[in-house]
Design brief:
heterodimer; A: alpha/beta; Glutaconate Coenzyme A-transferase; ten-stranded mixed β-sheet; B: alpha+beta; Ribosomal Protein S5, domain 2; four-stranded mixed β-sheet; 2 helices; 26% strand; globular
């Protein structure tokens, strides 16, 4: 069946009551009863919840073949927790598990062998890269992987689309009763935003930490009332890979030019006034936009109410300099940010649900004025792909792309027109992650295109000196320089399903023929 | 043109191509590319075109392409050929290249 974007969704994916994508607001007002965990009450005081090993915790959880387990990615490339748990599960011979992760990449490589031998047969994630991306692209996973945005993951957990049996939550610190936090300890990651829904909706919750602290470990991101067991290990992560050092601002003239155009676009809109709200990604161009905003804010004498998202040092600096009133943090990318979220009174941790879940009573993304986002590919209807490389490999992340672009008043894509001969603006994207109706402006090094659904923005941008053109003109320029790419050939086998944030199916990824 | 030794041109940087040529019987092209599926055929056609244009009939070409534009790719192949022929003077600017 074809969805609203003309993408063919196979019937077997829709079996079991899934709907095809029908527009970004299709499920506005949707009513449902939340899923609930099955709790084992701790009536009798037992001292503490500390178990001697991960293996003991797995046994105590009652984990069996066919169940669903979960992980978060706040330790990023320095995460040891997923591999430690999967190694133990593998040794115990438990099979056919569904893994609900907020991200999988380099640090979770043990999942590859678990996928190969059937220990893991299902996967839900918001980021998929590296060897796991390759394994899934090749169709090694028994069931198609579910690619969900950060908000979509919370929605799937809260509606019960995914019911987590056992959550393994790595924490920088915890007390013996499971009040856990991303703050302090040997593996300081700043916040535990993505683990909160897991702690509230999983039947059994295990905290894995390397730093046990005195009770109470407050403020706690994970409440001890939701935790069954605490395991203390030597190290939950590699600090240097959890939070990077100061990210150097890009010196790339192309990226700087794109960033300057984007800042000019923002400043020309009606939303650029005192109290505006803003989110940007951690990529070179996106970070540079933040820098270019400063003179425009000075000229107008305005401040930003809040900036949100994966927070980075340039944002923290802008707050310290008085340009931003508050920071709202769901992920801390560098040491400056980790330190700031511990000490700055106007820097707050939020949960993934508060950040982006479309099915609660209103997430922060709905209050965004601007968001700056990247793209692997964008088609002439402004549909964006951030999941699948142009070679068909799963090497990307919806992350918060889908959520913030749907929520914000002005979503701006920043991208070079061409990357290593790949035309980014094209007739058709390999797969759709974010629908074109969520995107307002496309900024490239060859010109700026405004979505025709926003004539108001086009009028506003005419007052600037940014080079305006149509998205079709950008595509033609790209094809003129690199030649029109040959269409990739795919097998029928669906290796991944791209679920829109509201639970409808926006696209599927098939196995590229060149991987046969 | 007749190759008298092996020669290289280019780099492994993104948007460039690394080209190695050596004298051989007939024409042999070995291509590895980050955009093989989208542009592999077009790259091979360009390389053959360059070889024909320079009247090269005995060469083995090995290319590691990192998404070079067509003009870059042609320039790298031409440079490698001229180097392999020890052609330092009277480069046919504006005619053959």
């Amino acid at each position: 069946m074809k969805n609203a974007l003309g993408r063919e969704i196979p019937d077997e994916i829709l079996a079991g009551g899934k709907e095809v994508f029908q527009g970004q607001h299709h499920r506005d007002g949707y009513q449902y009863t939340k899923d609930a965990p099955r709790i084992r009450a701790n009536v009798k005081p037992k001292g503490d919840k500390v178990l001697p090993s991960i293996r003991d915790a797995i046994i105590a959880s009652g984990l069996k073949d066919g169940m669903t387990i979960s992980f978060h990615h706040h330790f990023r490339d320095g995460d040891f927790v997923c591999n430690m748990v999967m190694d133990e599960i593998h040794r115990m011979g438990i099979k056919d598990l569904n893994v609900c992760a907020s991200s999988v990449g380099k640090a979770q490589n043990s999942l590859v062998s678990c996928i190969e031998d059937g220990t893991v047969t299902g996967l839900s994630t918001s980021v998929i890269r590296d060897e796991i991306g390759e394994a899934v692209s090749k169709g090694r996973l028994k069931n198609p992987a579910y690619i969900r945005s950060h908000g979509g993951r919370v929605r799937a957990i809260e509606t019960g689309d995914v019911h987590i049996n056992v959550a393994f939550i790595g924490a920088s610190t915890s007390d013996a009763y499971g009040n856990a936090s991303g703050k302090g300890g040997k593996s300081d990651c700043g916040v535990l935003s993505y683990a909160t829904p897991d702690s509230e909706y999983a039947d059994y919750v295990v905290i894995i930490t390397d730093t046990l602290v005195r009770t109470p470990n407050f403020p706690a991101s994970i409440l001890g009332t939701n935790v069954d067991a605490v395991v203390v290990v030597d190290k939950v992560g590699e600090q240097s890979k959890i939070a990077t050092g100061i990210l150097r601002l890009t010196q790339d003239t192309r990226e700087l030019m794109i960033a300057e155009y984007a800042a000019k676009c923002m400043a020309a809109t009606e939303y650029f006034k005192d109290g505006f709200t803003f989110q940007t990604g951690g990529g070179g161009t996106s970070l540079a936009v933040t820098r270019f905003l400063r003179p425009f804010m000075d000229a107008k004498g305005i401040k930003m109410d809040w900036a949100m998202g994966g927070i980075t040092a340039p944002m923290v600096e802008l707050m310290h300099e008085g340009y931003i009133r508050k920071l709202i943090n769901d992920q801390a990318f560098d040491v400056t940010t980790v330190k700031s979220v511990h000490t700055d009174p106007n820097h707050f941790e939020i949960t993934a649900g508060q950040y982006a879940n479309p099915f609660n009573k209103g997430a922060f993304v709905n209050q965004l004025d601007f968001v700056i986002l990247g793209a692997l590919e964008i088609d002439v209807d402004f549909n964006v792909n951030v999941v699948q490389g142009s070679d068909g490999l799963l090497q990307g992340a919806p992350g918060g792309h889908v959520d913030t672009s749907a929520g914000s008043k002005c979503a701006i894509i920043v991208t070079p027109l061409i990357r290593s001969r790949i035309p980014i603006v094209r007739d058709r994207v390999t797969s759709v992650t974010t629908p074109g109706e969520s995107i307002d402006i496309l900024v490239t090094d060859y010109g700026v295109a405004v979505n025709p659904k926003r004539p108001d923005l086009l009028e506003a941008l005419k007052k600037t000196d940014v080079p305006l053109c149509t998205i079709e003109e950008l595509r033609d320029t790209a094809y003129k320089i690199v030649g029109k790419p040959k269409e990739l050939e795919f097998d029928d086998k669906v290796v991944a399903v791209i679920e829109y944030r509201d639970g409808t199916i926006i696209d599927v990824c098939r196995k590229p023929k060149h991987l046969n | 043109m007749k190759l008298i030794k092996s020669a290289i041109a280019g780099t492994y940087e993104s948007s460039d191509a690394f080209v190695r040529v050596e004298p051989a019987e007939g024409v042999k092209i070995d291509l590895e590319s980050s955009v093989m599926d989208q542009y592999g055929d077009s790259i091979l056609a360009s390389v053959r075109d360059v070889l024909k244009n320079l009247d090269v009939s005995g060469v083995s070409v090995a290319i590691t392409d990192k998404g070079a534009l067509d003009c870059t790719l042609r320039a790298r192949v031409e440079t490698a050929i001229f180097r392999a022929c020890d052609a330092m003077d009277n480069i046919p600017w504006g005619t053959k290249i």
